[in-house]
Specification:
151 residues; alpha/beta
């Protein structure tokens, strides 16, 4: 099976603990997670940000005045998926610690999650949609050798 083509830009903002996040997100791993979640060729930018930038983006674009783990800005799905995925490093690190998961494992889940959002998947539109999206995430992550994030 041939995976979709991906043009990837990976950016790191000014992070207090940048080394840990860079180590958890080598470019080849980021690309692998995203490509396995894609149904079409894509141009995707992944930006890892601090809490201030994450909070400002979530507030300005979603009306929620707090930083969240991943924001997806989707611009097109055909003929090419075009999107920005913004992951808030301190939120991801806190969640990984609370879940007792390696940082890289939690990032893999959120990259898949954000990539599905970029293609129109939505877990906030109803219980059935949430269950479908969780099942798809679990399937993709299993294919990447990752455990079920919802177990």
């Amino acid at each position: 099976m041939s995976l979709p083509k991906l043009t990837l830009s990976l950016q790191f903002g000014d992070l207090p603990d940048a080394a840990a996040h860079r180590a958890a997100l080598p470019r080849h791993r980021v690309a692998r997670c995203i490509r396995h979640a894609l149904d079409a060729d894509a141009e995707i930018t992944v930006r890892i940000v601090d809490a201030d930038e994450g909070r400002a983006l979530n507030r300005d674009y979603r009306g929620k005045d707090h930083a969240t783990n991943v924001l997806t800005f989707d611009y097109a799905t055909e003929p090419l998926v075009m999107a920005d995925l913004v992951l808030c490093a301190p939120v991801v690190a806190r969640e990984a610690a609370e879940l007792k998961k390696p940082l890289a494992e939690h990032y893999a889940h959120l990259l898949v999650h954000g990539t599905l959002h970029a293609q129109g998947w939505d877990h906030e539109t109803g219980e059935a949609d949430a269950e479908d999206m969780e099942a798809r995430e679990t399937e993709i992550l299993a294919g990447l050798g990752q455990p079920n994030p919802y177990a």
